[in-house]
Amino acid sequence: MKVPDSGMPEQSYWESLFDLPLIAGWLELATVDKPVVEIGCGYGTFTIPVAKSIKSMLYAFDVEPSMIETAERNVRSAGLHNVRFSHRDIIESGTGLEEGSVGLVLLFNILHSEHRRTFLEEASRILAQSGRVAIIHWRKDIETPRGPRTELRPDLQTILDASTGLGLSYQGKSGILKPYHWGIQLTKGSGNEDRDHPGNQ
User: Fold this and answer.
1) Boundaries of every domain in the chain
2) Buried b (16+ CB within 10 A) or exposed e, 143-180
3) What are 69-111's pLDDT values in tens digits?
4) CA-CA 20 to 30 A from 50: which of 21, 35, 78, 162?
5) If you compute the radius of gyration of the chain from its CA atoms, what whole number of angstroms results?
């Protein structure tokens, strides 16, 4: 099932909308010692820098066959061998990965979907204890050149509400990822699962 308002522009323009080194640093990839999962890989914009920064496998999923083909081609051109792609509808079928088997799940520009809890449930299921789910989305406090309608974009409280009861805790790691995005990270099984935050993005 395709997430609404998720069409992709031309690749070079799309990639110009992100500060990739900033986001890679925010992910703290050196601390990840288990496989990484990327749900909605698109062109491989994040697949490539993440795969370059980890020693383990990266499992990349997308619901669009054309995106998988393009991302695979881009990964091959980058000379990477630690990425496995799957054309899969995560909403309908999950990832198919073992429970508690991964260290980081990436949910980038996808949680404006009405099925955001389904994505978070699957992330929690496959994460090992102390693993993290990293969420990035378009900001709703400024005008952005792309992205879904402002009212569809999740803020911090929306994410916390959707993750209630899933064993994912918020430990204060959120913030603006300039120019157009913000991010939040949740940790599997670290207590304070329903911790609130005084301000939304």
Assistant:
1) 11-188
2) ebeebbeeebbbbbebbbebbeebbbbbeeebeebeeb
3) 999 999 999 999 999 999 999 999 999 999 999 999 999 999 9
4) 162
5) 16
Greatest Cα-to-Cα distance within the chain, rounded to the nearest angstrom: 44
**Tokens in use for 172?**
């204060």
Q: Which residues does 63 contact at the CB level (< 8 Å), separation at least 6?
A: 1, 2, 3, 40, 87, 88, 89, 90
Instruction: Tell me which residues of the chain have a pLDDT lower than 70.
Output: 1-7, 190-201
CATH superfamily of 11-188: Vaccinia Virus protein VP39 (3.40.50.150)
Instruction: Tally the residues of the chain.
Output: 201
Residue 137 tokens, joined: 């989305």
Place of tokens 């997308």: 62
Return the bridge partners of 84, or none. Answer: 59
* pLDDT for the residue numbered 6: 58
